[in-house]
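USER:
Before I trust my own judgement here, I would like a peer's view. Write it directly below this note and I will take it from there.

ASSISTANT:
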Amino acid sequence: MFFKTTKILLINAAFYSAFSTACFSQTQPTPVQIEVNLSTVKAPMKPIWAFFGYDEPNYTYMKDGKKLLTEISQLSKVPVYVRVHSLLVTGDGEAALKWGSTNAYTEDAQGKPVYNWTIVDKIFDTFLERGMKPIAQIGFMPQALSSKPEPYRHHWKPGDDYNDIYLGWAYPPKDYEKWAELVYQWVKHSVAKYGQKEVESWYWELWNEPNISYWKGTTEEYIKLYDYTADAVKRALPTARMGGPEVTGPSWDKSELFMKTFLDHITKGKNYVTGKTGSPIDFITYHAKGAPKLVDGHVQMNMGTQLRDLDKGFEIVASYPALKKLPIIIGESDPEGCAACSEDMSPQNAYRNGTMYSSYTAASFARKYEMSEARGVNLLGAVSWSFEFEDQAWFRGFRDLATNGVDKPVLNVFRMFGMMEGNRVEVKQNLAYDFKKVRDESVRGQADINGLASKSASTAAVMVWNYHDDNVPSPDAAVKVAVKGLPSQKVQLNHYRIDKENSNSYEAWKSMGSPKQPSEEQIRLLEKAGQLELLTSPEWITPKDGSVIIEMQLPRQAVSLLHFKW
């Protein structure tokens, strides 16, 4: 294997102190300079990225689904949490776009409940066998309980009207007591099967996006359902963790109103079950999405829209003193809204196969840390609503992590995150962008060339990206990364890269002529290209006074990880 070279300068502390940090326009030859101080700890490096989700629960135990879940579990040193829809939907378990079913609840001829946990258990078993854990989404409505059971199932496909999917599964129950008993039996069954300690480590939540058509009831009916659900969960397992409300982005007025109405009820409303004040909640959930579009024939992302959703939710939670320190899980946190809306039907989603998705992911996750700290809230995780779609055309342009079992560039960003542990440390933010500028303006002027860094007892990692909202050709950026605080001993440096030539199965597929049915040998090569690759050969270095400068050429929409080990 042939590697490119990375220029490494060993520097003393006096030189480092004179190392100025500035960001220049892309036309200037002066390198962008990023300053990392491993000795200045900001906060623990929470694995907020170790959360994934998808609409189609039955993909979980299919061939490519199991393969991808294995890979996701292996990239993380902590358990990965997985959130899926439709765990209580009536049906035969057939997998389809934006659909899934488990047949967990039916009724006999006399209207008595019949519980069947076979498919639910099969889904959770697949997670647990890999050391993963569920965010157990309680929903949607079984047909026998739906207040409007017909029509029940949709047969949506890309290009169809999105509003056609919201049928009988989206309605309130005709009997809240029967619903509560279903929830109670599910939690009791889970404790019996998996053990109390295991189930205590899960997160239980109610529904998905109840402020839009996923919930065909009123806000008050959702609140009533939450009270019945939370009471049932806690009766079955008092130490279970229960949360909600999983609304869409709170920067939207109707979503903000729904979220505040819900949290008002949680803190001071009359409980529908107990008659007491308030309702139990252990964590808070909502969504945050960007908004790409086509501009002059190219994709233009809008990271600012997603960050404004995030920040508005943080602001709302922080306004409730009793709730401010609760964990927050962003239940879906993505560049846009519809994972199953393919590129061929939605051209603005053409970012998904290549490196724009990976650079966006790196840059946006870094800002999630900063924004939550600025609001003083407790961000636990951000779910990437992105998995895989079985039996689809190669690189069709779904928002997924892999295609036909081959990993896409974006998955390699999560492999990079998996190597960042310990504490998050200082990266000087006097570059072109900080989180406020990206939130308010997105990335429309200069490129966002910046970094995120961590340090543990025996490792350090610096992630560097070159991101821009506009996916247009641009010269590579010269970047100097100055790292201070390394031990003054031999340190191994591994430089990983995601760009057009590295860690990129999509470009490899295109270089093969974009085969619709790749051969076995081509698939082998694609699988190899989909793994995280080194840009340069591993090197042993001895920093001077604990300091070193790494020089690199960083292409637009590329991500590098400098990983130090001693």
